[in-house]
Design brief:
Strand order of the largest sheet: 1-2-4-3-5-6-7-8
Number of helices: 11
Shape: globular
Structural class: alpha/beta
Largest sheet: 8 strands, mixed
Number of strands: 8
Radius of gyration: 17 Å
Mean pLDDT: 97
Distance between the termini: 29 Å
Length: 261
């Protein structure tokens, strides 16, 4: 699969399907593989682009100070490489922070925006959660970080029903884990993110989407986003946790497709 050179880094990306461009931007884990379950349904109607963030997966593991603005610049540079004037964007968690930043700083590059399981500003809960996750990463190590992450990301019923998948994924994540200082810097970058004062300036047609049982970005974050973004629509799925795009696959895909159409 190809890589795009964007100045000081190479970004791994994949393209699936044909039609209007649709970029699926993943969360803190930052890998294209996150969207594997969604590709068949979404690429049937769209040219779907997924990528590994800088600092994740097969992209360059740059030892820089990571910020959401920097992550957004990388997405814009990837679009430039692909000669995309504008695209639909579905942003999950950190990808949703990137989507908000695109909507404020680069509105002409967006057609429609889906903000999925995301937030506009870290509150005490968010800071406390990611302080604990960062401590696990730096004091105990990647294996504990990955295993604990499963318990934050997925609902208990999904973990129970997919024990073999969970074990395989965790082993793979640990095997290919980026340098600890890179992941720690990415955590620092998302905790510092704050677009709360800019939401009223967003003019891109926006769907705010989450699951009721999300344990990382609780539904109140989405409710606030939908309230502050002019004309935004809000859809709360009954279940699926932080990764409802997989755990409530059909409901998620349908919500996205209905909105884009």
């Amino acid at each position: 699969m190809p890589k795009a050179t964007i100045g000081d880094a190479e970004i791994y990306y994949e393209e699936h399907g044909k039609g209007e461009p649709l970029m699926l931007v993943s969360g803190l884990g930052g890998t294209a593989a996150y969207w594997k379950a969604n590709l068949p349904a979404l690429s049937a109607s769209y040219r779907v682009i997924v990528h590994d963030h800088r600092g994740a997966g097969q992209s360059t593991h740059s030892r820089i100070r990571y910020t959401v603005d920097q992550m957004t610049d990388d997405v814009i540079r990837l679009m430039d490489h692909l000669r995309l004037d504008a695209a639909h964007v579905v942003g999950h968690s950190t990808g949703g922070a990137i989507g908000q930043t695109m909507a404020v700083q680069h509105p002409r590059r967006l057609k429609k925006l889906v903000l999925f399981a995301t937030w506009s500003k870290a509150d005490f809960f968010f800071k406390h959660l990611f302080s604990v996750r960062r401590e696990v990463l730096t004091k105990i190590g990647p294996q504990a970080y990955v295993q604990a992450g499963t318990l934050f990301l997925y609902p208990p019923w999904w973990v129970q029903q997919n024990a073999d998948i969970v074990r395989q994924r965790e082993a793979l994540f640990v095997q290919h884990f980026p340098p600890v200082e890179v992941v720690a810097s990415r955590i620092d970058g998302i905790v510092a993110f704050d677009r709360s004062a800019d939401l009223g300036r967003i003019t891109t047609p926006t769907l705010v989407l989450c699951a009721k049982d999300d344990a990382i970005t609780p539904a109140y974050f989405s409710e606030e986003l939908a309230k502050k973004i002019p004309g935004a629509k809000l859809k709360i799925l009954a279940e699926g946790g932080h990764c409802a795009s997989e755990c409530s696959l059909e409901a998620f895909n349908q919500a996205v497709l209905d909105f884009l159409r």
